[in-house]
UniProtKB/TrEMBL annotation:
GO terms for biological process: cytoplasmic translational elongation. Residues 80-105 are annotated as: Disordered. One of its GO terms (molecular function) is structural constituent of ribosome. It comes from the Eukaryota. GO terms for cellular component: cytosolic large ribosomal subunit. This is 60S acidic ribosomal protein P2. Pfam families: Ribosomal_60s. It comes from Zingiber officinale (Ginger). The keyword Cell division does not apply.
Length: 120
């Protein structure tokens, strides 16, 4: 991911064909390890491709990756499965949820030492 991020930074700076040296210099500037083998492999994979198309294809692939669900299945199995005894709900949990619902206010920090004045 760090190589992809560095590549995108170079693209955003206006260079449509970043070299391994550009990517390496960005990674080294933030103290990240720059592996030449991985950088060169990445550059060969994206060579001649439009970055927006690469991102679109990546999003499609990422959408097919399963996420969530497995934690819920583990929780059901730990309670004795779906056919086991009904789970007893914890009343403390409900109280915490209610507290969050009641406080919809947004609290902003106050800076008493700063005085703001608007021109008239």
């Amino acid at each position: 991911m760090k190589i992809v991020a560095a590549y995108l930074l170079v693209i955003l700076s206006g260079n449509p064909n970043p070299s391994a040296d550009y990517i390496r210099s960005i990674l080294e500037s933030v103290g990240a390890e720059a592996e030449d083998k991985r950088i060169n492999h990445f550059l060969t994979e994206v060579k001649g491709k439009d970055i927006t198309e690469v991102i679109a294809v990546g999003r499609e692939k990422f959408a097919s990756v399963p996420s969530g669900g497995s934690v819920a299945a583990i929780g059901v199995a730990a309670r004795g499965g779906a056919g086991g005894a009904p789970a007893v709900e914890d009343p403390k949990k409900e109280e915490k949820v209610k507290e969050k619902e009641e406080s919809d206010e947004v609290k902003l920090p106050v800076f008493p030492s700063r005085k703001f004045s608007f021109p008239t």
